[in-house]
Amino acid sequence: MRTAVVLSLVSLALLAIPLVAPAYYVTLMLPFMAYGVVLLGLNLLFGYTGLVSFGHALFIGIGAYTGAVLTTRFGVRQMELILPAAMLAAAVVAAPVGALCVRYVKIYFGTLAFGMVFYTFLLKFYKLTGGDEGMRMLRPWLLGSEWAGWSKTAYLIGPYYYFSLAVLVLATLLMWRIVRSPFGLCLKTIRENQLKAESLGVSVPLYRWYAFIISAAYAAVGGALLATPTGNVDPTLAYWTHSGNIVFMVLLGGFSSFFGPLLGAFVFIFLQDTVMSIFPYWRLIFGAILAFIVIFAPGGLMGLFARRRPVEVPRG
Amino acid sequence: MTANIVNILMGGVFHAAILFLVAAGLQVVFGVQKIFNLACGSFYALGAYSGVSAVAYFTGHGGPPTLFIIPLALGGLAVGLVGVVVERGLLRFVYDRDETFQLLLTFALVLMLEDLIRMTWGTAPVSTGGLYLTYGQARILGATVPVYNLLVIAASVAIALGIGWLLTRTAFGRIIRASADNREMAEALGVDMRWVYVRVFTLGTMLGTLGGALVIPATAAMSEMGIELIVEAFAVVVIGGLGSMRGAFVGALVVGVLRSVAISVYPELEMLLIYLIVIGVLLWRPRGLFGAATA
Predict the structure, then answer these.
(1) How many domains does chain B have?
(2) Best exposed site among A48, A67, A245, B252 by fewest CB in 10 Å?
(3) Per-residue confidence at B3, pLDDT binned at 50, 70, 90?
(4) Quick check: B294 pLDDT over 80?
(5) CATH number at residue B170
(6) Residues B203 and B255: beta-carbon distance below 8 Å
(7) How far is A299 from chain B (nearest CA, A)?
């Protein structure tokens, strides 16, 4: 009940923001929604399956570059085509990468290496990828319309905002269904007790592999959404520190809660903006925050709010 | 032709000597504390900046330029004592946690140290200028190699031998190996783990800071150097095998030399080749070349 009330209030606020908030804050909501999609997927691995990927920025990069390549090289401008293409590209890469990572190694080692392969490829193969300058991401069409008469800001805080919001809501509903399905319950069983899951006939590598591919597709959608507001994609999107930052966001919000990662993305984006406007060394502050969370509040912000249920901290 | 090959090889071995120091720090900490310390690259950067400052102070106060290597090494080693603070102030809280949280705590350190370095030394690169040429150049098979680079390679090999001696021939080394093998048993036999952890972590930190200090005369210190090096050190330990000193040594040589060869033959390949090898090793031999079978 309480969740329903909070959710309706949040939805109303999200719908109203472009009408009431200054344009600057509306544009800040765009990376929040993009990262929101990324983190929903990442938390399927981290929170629900108990795996951490320290190279997930690889898939953000794939999504963003898919958008850039399609709009600049192939003249495909419809966002409704770009997003599925990004998901497909990520899934094609995630299938072999995931198969290797979930079977053979601790997951962050495998994904970190693949992430760096992609990063160096983007950086070094200048003719194909634009090197460290990256590529332009042309303004995508939404709902079949070019929005030609709209200035960049008007486009971003108007149609693009609502389009992103729709994608985020769809992604949230879908993930809600996934984690509550028998499939989602199997993932949780694997996290809680791998041996028991195996003896009940759950194929642990197979389920981890599915989760890996789904989370990669989510990250690619987020990456494509992320590229439009900046209008440019560059290799740092796939760099390992970016992977670290998104795991940070999940932990900040709370990995053991469904909505925790969304809260984490929101707080991260807005707090980063606030801190940077006062003090240029935001990493110092954020590093201290991360250290504090790891040591004292591993349940993240959601864990602090929801004191009623004790937060389960996995112990090694 | 031979001169070219020697140049490429010596450049690779010099880089390997530095990489070995950082990777050795990573390995000793992973071996005992089971923490993969992402911040070892940040310690390397910290050592580099401290080395530059120590040398600048030394020459600024009339120290003879030929002795610059002494303040350089001392500066690098001294700042390694920050390891005591990090271990007692942060890491000791998470030893019984899941490794994800340990990894993220070291990532928090990466973020903090990167900006602490920017705050202290600014964003522009700093260097010791041409000081390292005071030792002159040596001619090897027609190639000219700075004597300083040869000194660093020799120092790194000496440190590798020293670590080997420490681990196998001293009481402290036996305690380290026992703790790495079986922590409970070591504790039951009366080893104070707090004592072991703080020393091991400080040793690991000092190896990283010393590596950073020694590399700096041949290049310039930049605030991103730490986050760039950690992925190379990561490649070294995956190729060599996590927790293995011999693995760090061989892995550093593989990464250092191959990178140097790739840069001169086909520059686009540079680190791409290294990561492809990492993936190959992960596939073919996930525990690395020298890793323990259980890892």
Answers:
(1) 1
(2) A245
(3) confident
(4) no
(5) 1.10.3470
(6) no
(7) 11
User: Is A96 in the B-facing interface, judged by CB distances under 8 Å?
Assistant: no
* Helix (H) and strand (E) counts in chain B: 12, 2
- The residue-averaged pLDDT of A59-87 equals 94
**Which residue in A153, A126, A133 sits closest to A25, CA to CA?**
A153
**Cβ proximity of A311 and A255 under 8 Å:** no
pLDDT of A313 reads 53
Q: Which domain covers residue A240, as residue numbers?
A: 22-305
Residue B103 forms contact with A (CB below 8 Å): yes
The mean pLDDT of chain A is 89
Q: Which residue has the tokens 């908030």?
A: A21
As given in the structure block, the two tokens for residue A191 are 């996290």
Q: Which two tokens stand for residue B91?
A: 């890491």
Question: Which pair of tokens denotes residue A89?
Answer: 């590209």
* Number of independent structural domains in chain A: 1
**Residues B54-62: what's their mean pLDDT?**
91
- Least CA distance to A246: which residue of chain B? B104
**Each residue's pLDDT tens digit, A247-256:** 999 999 999 8
Residue A83 neighbours by CB under 8 Å, 6+ apart: A167, A221, A224, A225
Lookup: tokens for A9: 């209030």
pTM: 0.92
Tokens representing B287 are 């525990």
- Pick from A100, A106, A315: CB nearest B97: A315
Residue of B nearest to A287 (CA): B108
**Secondary structure (3-state) at B138:** strand
Q: What's residue B93's pLDDT?
A: 92
Residue with tokens 């694997």: A190
Confidence category of residue A105, pLDDT binned at 50, 70, 90: low
Distance (Å, whole) CA A261 – CA A216:
16
